[in-house]
Design brief:
Elements lengths: L9 H19 L5 H14 L4 E3 L2 E5 L5 E6 L2 E3 L3 E6 L6 H14 L3 E6 L6 E6 L2
Parallel strand pairs: 5-6
Antiparallel strand pairs: 1-4, 2-3, 4-5, 6-7
Length: 129
């Protein structure tokens, strides 16, 4: 886990991920598979000392606490930010629903949906409260 004090703020962490994503999109442009962008983001964040888990299992619980399944998010950053990577022309409602499902299942509050697939980088921040 990063001990840098400015990374203790979730919004500063989100800004860092946004800036890093923008740099990746500026370099790679659009047209690659999602896995390429995911790997690039992991690589560049880890170079900055940020803890990133790739494809972490997220358990899904029923209301009584019984595990009823699991999901695989793209990235879990600093154990508190879920990041879903897309390579689509545009962000659609299903992408947002997917990230909301990950947030609910993980019981985390903050998520970023990053779409590298269009000519312009698209980033949506979701806060589940």
């Amino acid at each position: 886990m990063n001990t840098d004090p400015h990374m203790t703020d979730i919004f500063a962490l989100c800004d860092l991920v946004r800036e890093t994503s923008f740099q990746i999109h500026s370099y790679l442009r659009h047209g690659h598979r999602e896995q390429i962008y995911e790997n690039a983001l992991v690589h560049r964040l880890r170079k900055q000392g940020i803890s990133v888990e790739q494809q972490p299992d997220i358990l899904v619980y029923d209301e009584d606490g019984t595990v009823i399944g699991h999901l695989k998010a793209d990235l879990l950053i600093e154990s508190r930010l879920i990041c879903e990577i897309k390579g689509a022309r545009n962000i659609v409602d299903e992408h947002l629903a997917q990230l909301l499902g990950y947030l609910r299942a993980s019981r985390l509050e903050h998520g970023l949906l990053i779409n590298f697939g269009g000519p312009r980088l698209q980033i949506k921040k979701l806060i589940l409260s």
